Amino acid sequence: MESLVVRAERAGRTPVRIVDLAAGHGGFAIALKRRLGERIAITATDTADEYLEIGRAHARECGANVAFAIQDATDLSNFAPGDIDIFLCTQSLHHFP
Q1: Which H or E run includes 58?
Q2: Residue 87 contacts residue 21 (beta carbons within 8 Å)
Q3: Which of 32, 26, 25 is nearest to 86 (CA)?
Q4: Which of 48, 55, 56, 58 is a plausible cystine mate for 26, CB 3.0–4.6 Å?
Q5: Cβ distance 22 to 89 under 8 Å?
């Protein structure tokens, strides 16, 4: 991940805008934010708000500035080209047909 962030930074993106799709509780997004800090602006997304609520609470406990939002990972039409530098989808691909 860090090499992707470095590449985006070299392209003039600061902070690097990241969306973690189907993030569930947002554990990966929180860990990434804790590691890379202000270099990134990250949003953890899922279709289940109850999972996102758990993530919000965990992020607050950790002091990690992570945004959480409802998002269908199979429909990204609400994002305009260039809105996001990196899309992630970790530990969830097995849920998709």
Answers
A1: helix 49-62
A2: yes
A3: 32
A4: 55
A5: yes
Q: How far apart are CA 80 and CA 65, in angstroms?
A: 23
CB 22 within 8 A of CB 52: no
Q: What is the pTM of this model?
A: 0.93
The H-or-E segment that residue 86 falls in is: strand 86-88
Q: Cα–Cα distance between 48 and 92 in angstroms, integer?
A: 13
pLDDT in tens, the chain (97 residues): 999 999 999 999 999 999 999 999 999 999 999 999 999 999 999 999 999 999 999 999 999 999 999 999 999 999 999 999 999 998 777 777 7
